[in-house]
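LAB NOTEBOOK - FOLDING QUEUE
OPERATOR: T.R.
BATCH SIZE: 2
PURPOSE: Compare the predicted structure-token outputs for two unrelated chains run back to back under identical settings.
PRIORITY: normal
REVIEWER: second-year student, initials M.K.

ITEM 1
FIELD SEQUENCE / FIELD STRUCTURE:
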Amino acid sequence: MATFLGKVVQPQKSKLRCSLGGPAVTALRIRLKDGSRVQDHPCPWLYWLQARPRRWLGSEASDIEELADALELGKKFYVVGTSMGGYVAWACLKYIPDRLAGAALLASVINYRWPGFPKDLSNEAYHQQAVGDQWLLRVAYYAPWLLNWWVNQSWLPSPTVIQGNTFLPNHLDSQFRDRAISSGIFLQRRNISTLQGEHESLHWDLMVMFRKWEFDPMDLPPPSFPVHLWQGCKDGIMPASLQKHISQRVGWIKYHEVPDGGHFLNAIPGFDDHLLKTLLLQP
């Protein structure tokens, strides 16, 4: 029985680049020290790694550092973590702060189990999510080995964040997503980001983000460079209340609240220019 259950929950083997049946190599690749490869893609700023046996916060920061060196960005560089990418930015702040010239978090997803959150505040925000999303985070935390099986069962509560049908109260967010779906961009980006298989590309992100962390971001010491956090008040994915608590507790974070903003802040006209000017033209 144990063998049978093991086969049922075992994810499909990752589709390694350069392997039989794996995705084709179509662009310049950079080999990292451990043999993994980073490849760039015609879509701006999009990179992905070959499958590695184990990912954790420290390895994500190391990958960013090696990528920056391979791209010859210099001794210092900027890191921007958007939405789910926020955990990579936090990892860089923890593990490679001496390499950063500045950092920004844009509606960054948080871990509801960070010790720095008051339990009543995190519980309230946690239960604002759809039931399927709540269960997704529970499985990622308590039984990550079950995650691949869980999300593929149609009879279980469906996670809206994976299906792409989360309720978005912000009009710009809703328009942005609808356009991406109708134009095919949403599917195209999803296919690109999961070329090595959903488990390796998507489920591992969830496991790294929502399992128990090796550190609490709210306990990090003040860095020698500015760190900015932007959060929309009408974000249907990331509760603003938790970001406010982080900014209040961590005095060195410069908090920018966007009153009419949602989750997709780059959908706001002129926001990208504002972000770059804030990062690059800071005193």
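ITEM 2
FIELD SEQUENCE / FIELD STRUCTURE:
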Amino acid sequence: MAVAFTDDEAQLYDRQIRLWGLDAQKRMRSARVLLAGLTGLGVEVAKNIVLAGIKSITLLDGAVTTDADLTAQFYLGVESLGLNVSHSPKTRRQKRLLVHNAFMVAVVVDEENLESKQDSFFSQFDIVCLVGAPLNTMISVNDACRKYCVKFIAGSVYGLSGFLFQDLLEHDYVEDVVRAPGEPPQVGKHETAQQALDAANETTASQFHSSFTPLSAALSVAWSDAIAAKRIKPAPKLWFALLALWQTQRQNIELQATSDLLASAGIPSSVLPLDYLSAFFQSIGPEMSPVSAIVGGVYAQEVLKAVSGKDAPLNNVFLFDGTDGAGYATRVSL
């Protein structure tokens, strides 16, 4: 249920309300978010959505801080090494997140592992956000979210590159539609020519609907030279490189770009050259702050669009390829 706004809240969120409307801001203000994975990407997402004014965020991470975490996780310092990521130090992280929003978005810290949670745990949230989770966990949590009609987003950063995938189920949203450029104003319906010109620039709020695919279905697409280009447009090589990476995780094998790996993953060599895959594997390492900031900005934007019901969401994959500095929005489905 949308919450009532105080005068102080209306003043604080004035720019946002002008941008996407009071109703969208109210829906955002009632959103309960789970964020699992406090990596550099995770804290970028947390910072951005808390700034926007959600109702609550639960930070879930049972990992211990390592040197690699310090490359992009700006809420951690050397004093955090060896301590739990979500607890290190717990009160300082909560205060830093809360200072982003004067109205005290509720911040809950959960130090358990994501894999230990029962399916029913996810039913208390409006949207579940995973960061840095292994493939099997992403699939199982996505399936659990579908069981309870909870929206789902997952993403990771691998050195120079990153991705996000989202499953918003059956999603309704509002988008402002501007009069078509070639559609002339009808002066006869207005008192003056200026009013006609003003009317030509008017926007109307229109309702739209998007259907999303679960991750398990997106990964079950049978790729071949004949259908690859038709099933994913545009067809960035990074998506297929991710499929190869996840295949190495399934088989528990080393990161080596080979024809056998492509064959086992069902990836045609025509869409994923071995030299590109080799370069991608070599670039995988600790998160880099600039990449986390870029992917985190898009990730947070999609979270806010999902909970506010305002503007068209990405359906269903975003990829950032650090080798060429480009971002790609594409759809992967059966």
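REVIEWER COMMENT (ITEM 2): Residues 173-204 form one domain.
FOLLOW-UP: none requested
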